[in-house]
């Protein structure tokens, strides 16, 4: 088994709720604080800066945009937010009660996002034009979204037990999962040309090719509740085990390794490659963890 070094960096109070993390074009880590309604910025080795998006906003997923800013979903505020490198925040209101969750930049220069409560995929241009596309199912709780290698956007349908794809023209394809009630959440594009996702209820990692072929890889601990997944830049996919206080990795051929986090009950959620060659994960108890193989 590979060995890793894990260091925790406190970025907020224990009730603030670091949830998602990404690397911005400015070479800093940007993260959401879902409970305190803030966006954070951390240059590794420095103190974090926190910016207020609104106490009732519930910022959830954050992603770099095509305009050099960071864009994030406000799950409780029903908005898409934008934050510039100077910390200035702009909000774009959505349909009432839509509860946006996942967001990612698309190949068309727009931001694509999921509306978890209204079974829609949304598209937002950098100048604020919003388009919404209905899904062919109801009650899906559509969750994370990512750009695929085939020019489409791929997303998880947590309660519909499926992986979806939407083309730039709004055409939606649904791929049911082999395992019942698997409840997929995070999804990312791998270096192998496939999409990788986590099944939080089944304790598995999934892989789907652009033509719809699905493989599932059971975790050593099926009760680990994997939450988010990302490419690590090293050929592996890295994921969080929210229910087991671990991070793990999987190779394209299915070899899995898991690593305990130093602080018990730290609740790892989002995970992303950092600007320093390490993998970083957001711990809901108030820190970011830096994971480096050694």
TrEMBL record:
Species this protein is from: Allokutzneria albata
GO molecular function, one term: carbon-oxygen lyase activity
A GO cellular component entry from the record: outer membrane-bounded periplasmic space
InterPro entries: Vgb (IPR051344), Vgb_bact (IPR011217), WD40/YVTN_repeat-like_dom_sf (IPR015943)
Annotated EC: 4.2.99.-
Name of the featured protein: Virginiamycin B lyase
Summary of subunit composition and partner proteins: Monomer.
One GO process term, biological-process aspect: antibiotic catabolic process
Gene from which the chain derives: vgb
Family the entry assigns: Belongs to the Vgb family.
Keywords: Antibiotic resistance, Lyase, Magnesium, Metal-binding
Active-site residues from the entry: 269
Protein task: Inactivates the type B streptogramin antibiotics by linearizing the lactone ring at the ester linkage, generating a free phenylglycine carboxylate and converting the threonyl moiety into 2-amino-butenoic acid.
Binding positions (substrate): 227
């Amino acid at each position: 088994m590979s060995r890793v070094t894990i260091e925790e960096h406190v970025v907020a109070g224990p009730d603030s709720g670091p949830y998602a993390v990404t690397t911005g074009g400015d070479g800093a880590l940007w993260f959401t604080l879902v409970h305190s309604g803030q966006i954070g910025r951390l240059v590794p080795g420095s103190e974090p800066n926190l910016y207020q998006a609104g106490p009732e906003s519930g910022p959830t997923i954050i992603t770099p945009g095509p305009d050099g800013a960071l864009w994030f979903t406000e799950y409780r505020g029903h908005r898409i937010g934008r934050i510039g490198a100077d910390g200035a925040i702009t909000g774009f209101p959505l349909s009432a009660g839509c509860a946006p969750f996942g967001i990612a930049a698309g190949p068309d220069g727009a931001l694509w996002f999921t509306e978890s409560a209204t079974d829609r995929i949304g598209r937002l241009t950098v100048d604020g034009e919003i388009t919404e596309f209905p899904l062919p199912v109801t009650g899906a709780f559509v969750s994370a979204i990512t750009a695929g290698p085939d020019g489409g956007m791929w997303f998880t349908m947590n309660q519909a037990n499926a992986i979806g794809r939407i083309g730039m023209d709004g055409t939606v394809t649904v791929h049911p999962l082999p395992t019942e009630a698997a409840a997929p959440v995070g999804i990312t594009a791998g270096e192998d040309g496939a999409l990788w996702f986590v099944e939080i209820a089944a304790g598995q990692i999934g892989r789907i090719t652009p033509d719809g072929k699905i493989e599932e890889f059971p975790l050593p601990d099926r009760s680990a509740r994997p939450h988010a997944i990302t490419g690590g830049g090293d050929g592996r996919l890295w994921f969080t085990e929210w229910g087991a206080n671990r991070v793990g990795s999987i190779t394209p051929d299915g070899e899995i390794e898991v690593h305990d986090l130093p602080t018990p009950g730290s609740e790892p959620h989002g995970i992303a490659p950092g600007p320093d060659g390490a993998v970083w994960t957001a711990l809901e108890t108030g820190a970011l963890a830096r994971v480096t193989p050694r």
